[in-house]
Design a protein that fits this description.
alpha/beta; Rossmann fold; five-stranded mixed beta sheet; 12 strands; 16% strand
Length: 430
Amino acid sequence: MSAMPPGNPASNPFVSSPTYLMACQQLRNVARVIDLDKGVAERLMVPKRSQIVAVPVRMEDGHTEVFVGYRVQHSLTSGPSKGGLRYAKNVDLGEVAALAMWMSWKCGIMNLPYGGAKGGIAVDPAELKGGEKERLTRRFTDEIQNIIGPRVDVMAPDMGTDEQTMAWIYDTYSMKVGYACPEIVTGKPVELGGCVGRKEATGRGVVYCISEAFDELNIKSEGATAVVQGFGNVGSVTCDELVKLGTKVIAIGDRYGSIRNDRGINIARLNEYVSKNERKTIVGFPEAEAIADAELLTTPCTVLVPAAMERVITAENAGKLKCRVLAEGANGPTDPEADAILANTDIFVVPDILCNAGGVTVSYFEWVQDLAQFMWDEEEVNAQLKKLMLGAFKRVRDEAKTRKIGNRLAALSLGVQKVAREKSKRGLYP
């Protein structure tokens, strides 16, 4: 395969993004391992469909501001595309395209009938006031109405969005088509057809994988220590679930700063503290000391969980990690240069497309329930989630051992192979 994505780089709108180039590099690595057909590889390198829209919003002070929104559908081969919608200040088309590609592999690993998609609006949600976020969400939904649908593309929450955001999308889409259509989004409120356990699903899936890694490495959960970067939905639930296993969370970071307590941070009291302060931050929590953000990822621990942004583990800090297990709760937290360094250590990597697949898995459960109008209880949701996560973990480890490759390459191989097989079987039209 070529050193760059197919086509003329000068006309490729994605290649300015280092995150997209990272996703392409991973695909090239997989292609060499599984001897992927060159034609299929080139098709997988470029998203099926991408849309950029202007999103004008009347702000609280009366002036109109125009935001830029993106929706990228990497693949529609396996079924409707599936992926989150993020609101982040620096989001761009290439980043969204990379995330959509990773979603395709993630759905492939979990054997879900989806292709990958992702969406984003370049906005800092913390700066939105009053009804601005609702107006932004509804206008964005209207602008991309032509490429979404319950059998076409199904959105879910991501960074900067939540179940209320999904409720606005559900309502806006339903008003347009003329009937209630809860299956247009997942991760919405339970009262509107959401799935019990969906909000906690990604964090629970992360901890299921950590527990399996501990078992394989003969590490006892009781007495183990954890460092978690990110205290949003994924990070906070991961902390809660780790504590239930007897693991001490000794350091946590969020967008505003990092804290540490070697005796273990009381997660219940930290959650209460975060819920009561205006910025919803861990900074200032009186039962822990502040540490520099640069120290967080290199804090000695049993398991390190990056659960925030992409590309936070790089060639500069990979050799300084002092963990036994790296469980990637975020998408793309480790770049290829860092991967090469980690390959020469004893760190057991649970790659992102496996580790954080719990969210899309329970989103699938929610979508199925909405289509059937038959809802499950939380016990059944959690049991099915655990079954699928442990099955995927075993498949990845079997692939890694059989091919004598690392866990990331094994996970990517399984995801890519599923999509590639389906593309080959369907053929190329016309």
